[in-house]
Amino acid sequence: NINLRKVAVRTPGFSGADLANLMNEAAILAARDNRKEVLQDDMFQAVEKVLLGPERKGRAISLKEKEITAQWSEVENAYQRRNDLIPNLVATVSNYADFEKSTLEAVVNARANATKMTIDPSKLDAESLRKFQEAQGQVSTALGRLLVVSENYPDLKANQNFMDLQTQLEGSENRIAEQRRQFINAVKDFN
To answer: What angle do CA 65, 71, 77 make, to 5 degrees?
Structure first.
């Protein structure tokens, strides 16, 4: 005997109404064959019809779309966290009078462009993702140049605030990579 309640518990998004539909469908199949008892085959056919039918597939797709949207939000949050660190980094570095102004301006401008670029999760497409990634790539490039140039300033490298910000930026870059990986996996599961 198949336990429909166990099937229900193990199926994501399965509701009490789905369980009622399963039991009703199995009873209909038994009645067609003039049987009072529901057989295992009746239950398997009911499971197939109710769980794998077009209405159910639509619900599964909707759940996957929600998962992709939620995962994209995590990607944006990771990028935003990095962008939030930049003003503190620029303020710390700008205290060193002879630090290259063009490098700081590049970081500030790249951040400004990146924060302007947002994507509506319901309208994720290749072109908007490309533009978003391009803007975020400019931030990464500018930050990379800033960190390379900072090597020429031993006092700056020794500044505790600067070292803390470097560590936080590194952590942010790791979170970004991880969130992007999870987003890509969610999209692959959807496709």
So the answer is: 140
Cα-based distances in Å from 136 to 77, 113, 132, 158: 13, 9, 6, 28
CB 113 within 8 A of CB 135: yes
Distance CA 74, CA 71 (A): 5
pTM of the full structure: 0.61
CA–CA separation, 49 and 56 (whole Å):
9
The answer to whether residues 84 and 119 touch, using CB atoms and an 8 Å cutoff, is no
- 144-189 pLDDT tens trace: 999 888 888 888 888 888 889 999 999 999 999 998 888 888 877 7
Q: pLDDT tens digits, residue range 59-73?
A: 555 667 777 888 888
User: Following CA atoms 67, 69, 75, 81 in sequence, which dihedral angle do they give, to the nearest 10 degrees?
Assistant: -110
> Helices in the chain by DSSP H: which ranges?
4-10, 16-32, 40-52, 54-94, 101-116, 126-150, 154-158, 160-190
Are the beta carbons of 72 and 176 closer than 8 angstroms?
A: no
For tokens 């398997």, name the residue: 44
Identity of the residue numbered 93: V
Q: Please give the C-alpha separations between residue 189 and each of 27, 41, 186, in angstroms, as whole numbers.
A: 35, 31, 5
